[in-house]
Design brief:
Number of helices: 19
Number of domains: 1
Oligomer: single chain
Order of helices and strands: HHHHEHHHHEEHHHHHEHHHHHH
Structural class: mainly alpha
Length: about 425
């Protein structure tokens, strides 16, 4: 049945490999069920309800991604968008969370219209291959930076912005040990290297007292539901207040954030053809659009494909079965949420760093000898981790690519869609600076 549903042999994978990949992706992204509700609670939303809405959005939309789009990717409320929602829309902008959810729902409609009219696909197809490779590399650098930050290998610094972390911290040392353990196992082609590393670091941390098992009941038999946030979005309020700049920002950030993740993961999973076309991408984008609307209805922010699923792809995930396994494990968190907390960030951080290294391999395909390619590619790669935003990297890359071609008298080489996208990014940057 699995072979018939997911064509495992055609993708060079197996049920065991897909299960390992799904488990790896889950362990790399499961922190979201603690981080996302925390931010939404800061926006004034009821915490218990947003915990439930976050998990249910992840389950429903990832299930669609697995069975319909058949991508080995988990979909959940995005961290960057959630931060924008909680600390700007419901903060300095002064809107209620109900009005903010209305804006999220409207942006989901915009995503869907752009997808069914194939505008999103046209945008992706219009991106030059050099920039697509740069996107993959930039996403890899971003993933690695997240991993280093999560384990304290790099920390914020008042004078240099970023500095080497405290290497005398036990959690950091455990993460470094896990990095070398996983690297050695992968160098020896040991199956399940990432899972082995995550489990080994977690158990070692518990044994040494660096982290602890959560207190209280580890199992709950009552399934949480988003009763206080379900259907609370205020569409009339969002339209009445004229939240154009907020809706535009939500649309632009999710469009290119999600696009960057899908391009990066599709490349590593072997879904991208030589001409840059990605099979089943239209279904993945429609899933993302539906997910955003469903998220607003349930009481969470914009749903997006999760970057951390690169860990599962690196582990061998190639089909929608990986996503189905992710769904099953998130379903268990409804009952075993306290146990998920036992996997600390420093245990999954080495996986993110290694995945970043794997994605960096595509840098050799970028034609750096042509400076009209080199500078946009470099800006795309470097600005993703430095601004902590994939969409910003897109913006710098697109704008600089178009500008350099025009200044060098090669404007005819740029497609009309690239001009439109670059102009939209320029407008977005201006709106965000006001």
């Amino acid at each position: 049945m699995m072979e018939r549903l997911f064509r495992l042999s055609a993708h060079g994978t197996s049920v065991r490999q897909e299960c390992l990949a799904g488990l790896t992706s889950f362990m790399a992204m499961c922190y979201l069920i603690f981080v996302v509700p925390g931010m939404l609670a800061d926006a004034g939303m009821p915490r218990e309800s947003v915990v439930a809405s976050t998990i249910w959005v992840t389950i429903i939309v990832t299930l669609i991604m697995g069975f319909w789009a058949r991508f080995p990717v988990g979909v959940a409320p995005g961290l960057g968008i959630t931060a924008f929602f909680a600390y700007y829309v419901c903060g300095p902008a002064g809107y209620t969370w109900q009005t903010g959810l209305g804006a999220v729902f409207i942006s989901g409609i915009v995503f869907l219209l752009l997808t069914v009219t194939r505008v999103r696909q046209m945008i992706i197809d219009a991106v030059p291959m050099d920039l697509k490779y740069a996107i993959v590399v930039g996403v890899g650098a971003f993933i690695a930076f997240i991993g280093m930050k999560n384990c304290g290998l790099v920390v914020a610094d008042a004078s240099t912005f970023v500095a080497l972390g405290h290497l005398n911290e036990a959690s950091t040392l455990l993460a470094v040990a896990g990095l070398f353990l996983i690297g050695a196992l992968m160098g020896r082609n040991v199956p399940g290297a990432m899972i082995i590393g995550i489990v080994a670091v977690t158990l070692t941390g518990l044994a040494l007292g660096v982290s602890r098992l959560p207190e209280g009941e580890l199992i709950s038999f009552s399934v949480p539901l988003p009763t206080e946030t379900f259907g609370q979005m205020d569409l009339a309020g969002a339209l009445h207040h004229g939240l154009f700049s907020i809706i535009f920002t939500l649309t632009m950030v999710d469009l290119f954030d999600n696009m960057g993740v899908l391009i990066g993961l599709a490349r590593k999973a072997g879904f991208m053809r030589e001409d840059g076309h990605i099979d089943n991408l239209d279904r993945a984008l429609i899933t993302d659009s539906i997910g955003t609307m469903a998220s607003a209805v349930l009481g969470a922010t914009t749903a997006t494909s999760y970057l951390e699923c690169a860990a599962g792809v690196a582990q061998g995930g190639r089909t929608g079965l990986t996503a189905v396994v992710i769904v099953a494990l998130f379903g268990l968190t409804l009952f075993f949420a306290p146990l998920v907390a036992a996997v600390p960030a420093y245990a999954t951080a080495p996986v993110l760093i290694i995945v970043g290294a794997l994605m960096m391999q595509d840098v050799v395909h970028i034609r750096f000898r042509d400076f009209t390619v080199a500078l946009p590619a470099f800006l795309t790669i470097i600005t993703m981790p430095l601004t902590f935003n994939i969409a910003t990297g897109f913006g710098f890359g697109f704008i600089s690519f178009v500008a350099l071609r025009l200044l060098c008298g090669r404007g005819r080489e740029v497609s009309p869609i690239m001009y439109i996208v670059a102009a939209c990014f320029a407008a977005n940057f201006i709106l965000r600076s006001l």
